[in-house]
Structure formats: C-alpha cells, structure tokens
Amino acid sequence: MQRRTFNREQIAWAAGFYEGEGSVTISNSSDGCQRLCLQIWQSSPECLVRFREVFGIGNLGGPYRNNSGWVKHNAPLKPKYCWHISGHQPVQAIIAMMWPWLSEVRRSRAVEMLRQFRAYESLPRYQRRRWRELLA
Fold first, then answer.
1. Measuring CA to CA, which residue among 100, 134, 130 is closest to residue 34?
2. Domain 8-135's class?
3. DSSP string, 7-24
4. Rounded distance, CA 47 to CA 44, Å?
5. Which residues, 6 or more positions from 49, have their beta carbon under 8 angstroms from its beta carbon?
6. Mean pLDDT of all residues in the chain?
7. Cβ atoms within 10 Å, residue 130
8. Residue 40 CB: number of other CB atoms within 10 A?
9. Which of 66, 73, 112, 116 makes the best surface tag, with the fewest CB within 10 Å?
10. Distance between alpha carbon 55 and the CA centroid of its chain, in Å?
C-alpha cells in the first residue's frame, strides 16, 4: 500500500474552508446508533471536490433539494451538495491535520464532540439509546 503525502498549503486552504462552512456533529445513523460526522454543505460541488482531493477521503452527495427556508430575491433556491465523512478515526485524523489553522471555537467544538463520542462508545450497548441522558 502506497503512503499518501499531504500538501501543507492545501490543508491550510481546507482548514479555512471548513472553518467557514463545515461542522462536526454526532448524528443518528440508519441503524439507530450514533456516528461522529464531519460535513460541509455548498450550493456548488467544486470546492467540495477540492476538499476531498486534499485529504483523499470523504463522500460527496447531491444535488439535494434546498429546504432551508431562505429566499434570495424571490429566486428559486439552488440545490445543495455535501461532503461528509463519519467514524471516529477518520474524523479525528482530518481534524488533527487541520488543527494548526482552526480557530479556538472550532477546536473546542471538535474536542467536545470527540469527548462525547468516546463517552458514547464506552457505554454498554444496552445503554447507548439513552446516552445523552446518561452523560448529562
């Protein structure tokens, strides 16, 4: 397996893009479990494709119907596209690579989501459905 090399300037660009447009969340998966997720939504896919190329991973989805409720000059809303990745290790790896360029707000949000997800994973399976109550 060939080892991937990363370009520092491209990662800095990706961190700035994520800083303005991205999010890290814990969301429900289709099987009822929780998943740690990084995502970025855009009205055009070009920057999302570039972001994926920087790290070499992630999924692109769309176009999706824009149901945001925002109307701009009575024009129809553009469809939305999404880059996303889920899983503790890939999310943590991408955050770690972008870390030097992230703001304190983004860093603290990432640390909090990683902490909560580790706590969720440490629970016995039968308690995971109520994990938010148990961690409060």
1. 130
2. alpha beta
3. -HHHHHHHHHHHHHHEEE
4. 7
5. 60
6. 88
7. 10
8. 21
9. 73
10. 13
Strands in 1-136 per DSSP E: 22-28, 34-42, 59-64, 80-86
By CB neighbour count within 10 A (0-12 exposed, 13-18 middle, 19+ buried), where does 3 fall? exposed
Residue showing tokens 């969340």: 25
**103 phi/psi in degrees, rounded to 5:** -75, 165
pLDDT 10s per residue in the chain (136 long)? 667 889 999 999 999 999 999 999 998 877 778 899 999 999 999 999 999 999 999 999 999 887 765 556 666 778 899 999 999 999 999 999 999 999 999 999 999 999 999 988 888 877 777 766 655 5
Residue type, 126: Y
- Classify residue 54 as exposed, middle or buried by CB count within 10 Å of its CB (0-12, 13-18, 19+): buried
Instruction: Report DSSP state, residue 87.
Output: S
- Domain ranges in the chain are 8-135
